[in-house]
Amino acid sequence: MNVSESGHRGRDALLMIDIINPFDYPEADRILANTRRALPAMKRLVEAFRAQGRPVIYANDNFGQWRSNFPDIVRRCREGNGRDVVEAMHPASDDYFVLKPHRSAFYDTPLERLLNELGAEHLLLAGIATDMCVLASASDAHMRSYHLTIVSDATAAVDEARHDSCLDLMGHTLDAKVASTQQVLMNLALERK
Question: For residue 83, what is the domain's CATH number?
Fold first, then answer.
Protein backbone atom coordinates (compact mmCIF):
# COMPACT_ATOMS: atom_id res chain seq x y z
CA MET A 1 0.00 0.00 0.00
CA ASN A 2 1.41 3.39 -0.88
CA VAL A 3 0.93 6.60 1.09
CA SER A 4 -1.87 7.91 -1.12
CA GLU A 5 -3.87 4.69 -0.59
CA SER A 6 -3.30 4.63 3.17
CA GLY A 7 -5.46 7.61 4.05
CA HIS A 8 -2.62 8.80 6.29
CA ARG A 9 -2.40 12.44 5.35
CA GLY A 10 -2.34 15.26 7.78
CA ARG A 11 -0.23 17.46 9.84
CA ASP A 12 0.66 15.13 12.78
CA ALA A 13 2.86 12.04 12.66
CA LEU A 14 4.03 9.87 15.56
CA LEU A 15 7.65 8.79 15.40
CA MET A 16 8.40 5.73 17.58
CA ILE A 17 12.18 5.62 17.93
CA ASP A 18 14.07 2.35 18.56
CA ILE A 19 11.26 0.73 20.52
CA ILE A 20 11.75 -2.54 18.63
CA ASN A 21 14.94 -3.43 20.43
CA PRO A 22 16.92 -6.51 21.55
CA PHE A 23 18.13 -4.80 24.76
CA ASP A 24 21.43 -6.66 24.55
CA TYR A 25 24.04 -3.93 25.06
CA PRO A 26 25.75 -2.26 28.04
CA GLU A 27 23.21 -0.70 30.44
CA ALA A 28 20.35 -2.38 28.54
CA ASP A 29 18.87 -3.71 31.76
CA ARG A 30 18.51 -0.15 33.10
CA ILE A 31 16.96 1.26 29.95
CA LEU A 32 14.69 -1.79 29.67
CA ALA A 33 13.36 -1.19 33.19
CA ASN A 34 12.62 2.46 32.34
CA THR A 35 11.11 1.48 28.99
CA ARG A 36 8.76 -0.93 30.76
CA ARG A 37 7.61 1.95 33.00
CA ALA A 38 6.93 4.08 29.89
CA LEU A 39 5.26 1.22 28.01
CA PRO A 40 1.63 1.93 29.00
CA ALA A 41 1.99 5.54 27.80
CA MET A 42 3.65 4.42 24.57
CA LYS A 43 0.85 1.94 23.90
CA ARG A 44 -1.90 4.50 24.55
CA LEU A 45 -0.21 6.97 22.23
CA VAL A 46 0.18 4.49 19.36
CA GLU A 47 -3.36 3.17 19.76
CA ALA A 48 -4.79 6.71 19.73
CA PHE A 49 -2.91 7.62 16.55
CA ARG A 50 -4.04 4.43 14.84
CA ALA A 51 -7.65 4.90 15.93
CA GLN A 52 -7.68 8.42 14.48
CA GLY A 53 -6.04 7.35 11.20
CA ARG A 54 -2.88 9.32 11.96
CA PRO A 55 0.45 7.90 10.80
CA VAL A 56 2.66 5.89 13.15
CA ILE A 57 6.25 5.59 11.95
CA TYR A 58 8.76 3.22 13.51
CA ALA A 59 12.30 4.53 13.13
CA ASN A 60 14.53 1.70 14.14
CA ASP A 61 18.20 0.96 14.32
CA ASN A 62 19.34 -1.76 11.95
CA PHE A 63 21.77 -2.96 14.67
CA GLY A 64 24.50 -3.31 12.05
CA GLN A 65 22.49 -5.95 10.17
CA TRP A 66 22.87 -4.57 6.65
CA ARG A 67 21.10 -7.51 5.00
CA SER A 68 18.03 -7.29 7.19
CA ASN A 69 14.64 -5.70 6.83
CA PHE A 70 12.11 -4.50 9.38
CA PRO A 71 10.30 -7.86 9.81
CA ASP A 72 13.71 -9.51 10.39
CA ILE A 73 14.54 -6.92 13.05
CA VAL A 74 11.18 -7.52 14.77
CA ARG A 75 11.74 -11.30 14.76
CA ARG A 76 15.26 -10.92 16.16
CA CYS A 77 14.12 -8.55 18.90
CA ARG A 78 11.29 -10.89 19.91
CA GLU A 79 13.99 -13.32 20.96
CA GLY A 80 15.76 -10.75 23.15
CA ASN A 81 15.43 -9.58 26.73
CA GLY A 82 12.69 -7.10 25.87
CA ARG A 83 10.34 -9.49 24.09
CA ASP A 84 7.45 -8.15 26.20
CA VAL A 85 8.15 -4.62 24.91
CA VAL A 86 8.33 -5.84 21.31
CA GLU A 87 5.06 -7.75 21.69
CA ALA A 88 3.31 -4.75 23.24
CA MET A 89 4.62 -2.33 20.60
CA HIS A 90 4.43 -4.61 17.58
CA PRO A 91 3.79 -2.56 14.44
CA ALA A 92 0.41 -2.81 12.74
CA SER A 93 0.19 -3.63 9.04
CA ASP A 94 -0.52 -0.01 8.08
CA ASP A 95 2.25 1.55 10.19
CA TYR A 96 5.38 2.82 8.46
CA PHE A 97 9.00 2.07 9.23
CA VAL A 98 12.46 3.28 8.38
CA LEU A 99 15.69 1.54 9.30
CA LYS A 100 18.47 3.82 10.44
CA PRO A 101 22.20 3.15 10.61
CA HIS A 102 22.87 5.49 13.52
CA ARG A 103 21.17 7.69 16.11
CA SER A 104 19.01 10.08 14.13
CA ALA A 105 15.87 8.85 12.39
CA PHE A 106 16.74 11.27 9.57
CA TYR A 107 20.39 10.33 9.00
CA ASP A 108 20.74 8.21 5.83
CA THR A 109 17.04 7.22 5.84
CA PRO A 110 14.02 8.03 3.65
CA LEU A 111 12.15 9.56 6.61
CA GLU A 112 12.05 13.11 5.30
CA ARG A 113 10.62 11.98 1.98
CA LEU A 114 7.99 9.86 3.76
CA LEU A 115 7.00 12.80 5.97
CA ASN A 116 6.67 15.01 2.89
CA GLU A 117 4.44 12.40 1.23
CA LEU A 118 2.29 12.27 4.37
CA GLY A 119 2.07 16.06 4.56
CA ALA A 120 3.40 15.99 8.12
CA GLU A 121 4.34 19.28 9.73
CA HIS A 122 4.24 18.30 13.40
CA LEU A 123 6.20 15.33 14.75
CA LEU A 124 5.52 13.70 18.07
CA LEU A 125 8.57 11.78 19.27
CA ALA A 126 8.50 8.82 21.65
CA GLY A 127 10.78 5.85 22.31
CA ILE A 128 14.34 5.35 23.47
CA ALA A 129 16.75 6.69 24.44
CA THR A 130 15.72 10.21 25.35
CA ASP A 131 19.33 11.38 25.57
CA MET A 132 20.58 9.67 22.41
CA CYS A 133 18.35 8.69 19.49
CA VAL A 134 15.33 10.78 20.51
CA LEU A 135 17.57 13.82 20.99
CA ALA A 136 19.42 13.29 17.68
CA SER A 137 16.13 12.82 15.81
CA ALA A 138 14.61 15.90 17.45
CA SER A 139 17.64 17.99 16.53
CA ASP A 140 17.48 16.89 12.89
CA ALA A 141 13.71 17.48 12.80
CA HIS A 142 14.20 20.98 14.20
CA MET A 143 16.80 21.75 11.50
CA ARG A 144 14.17 20.73 8.94
CA SER A 145 11.59 23.11 10.46
CA TYR A 146 9.17 20.50 11.80
CA HIS A 147 7.09 21.44 14.82
CA LEU A 148 8.02 19.09 17.64
CA THR A 149 6.42 17.52 20.66
CA ILE A 150 8.46 15.19 22.84
CA VAL A 151 6.13 12.89 24.76
CA SER A 152 7.75 12.91 28.17
CA ASP A 153 6.20 9.79 29.70
CA ALA A 154 6.51 7.79 26.44
CA THR A 155 10.28 8.20 26.25
CA ALA A 156 12.94 6.57 28.39
CA ALA A 157 16.66 6.79 29.12
CA VAL A 158 19.12 4.88 31.27
CA ASP A 159 18.21 7.04 34.26
CA GLU A 160 15.77 9.79 35.22
CA ALA A 161 18.44 12.50 35.49
CA ARG A 162 19.52 12.01 31.87
CA HIS A 163 15.90 11.73 30.75
CA ASP A 164 14.83 14.93 32.52
CA SER A 165 17.86 16.98 31.48
CA CYS A 166 17.36 16.01 27.84
CA LEU A 167 13.66 16.88 27.93
CA ASP A 168 14.64 20.28 29.33
CA LEU A 169 17.34 20.70 26.67
CA MET A 170 14.98 19.85 23.80
CA GLY A 171 12.34 22.21 25.18
CA HIS A 172 14.77 25.11 25.41
CA THR A 173 17.07 24.66 22.41
CA LEU A 174 14.89 22.91 19.82
CA ASP A 175 11.64 24.81 20.42
CA ALA A 176 10.06 21.47 21.25
CA LYS A 177 6.92 21.21 23.31
CA VAL A 178 7.37 18.66 26.07
CA ALA A 179 4.03 17.08 26.98
CA SER A 180 2.64 13.99 28.68
CA THR A 181 0.64 11.37 26.82
CA GLN A 182 -2.50 12.64 28.54
CA GLN A 183 -1.85 16.20 27.29
CA VAL A 184 -1.19 14.92 23.77
CA LEU A 185 -4.37 12.82 23.72
CA MET A 186 -6.44 15.76 24.98
CA ASN A 187 -5.02 17.98 22.21
CA LEU A 188 -5.74 15.32 19.58
CA ALA A 189 -9.32 15.02 20.84
CA LEU A 190 -9.78 18.80 20.66
CA GLU A 191 -8.40 18.90 17.10
CA ARG A 192 -11.02 16.37 15.98
CA LYS A 193 -13.92 18.53 17.17
Answer: 3.40.50.850
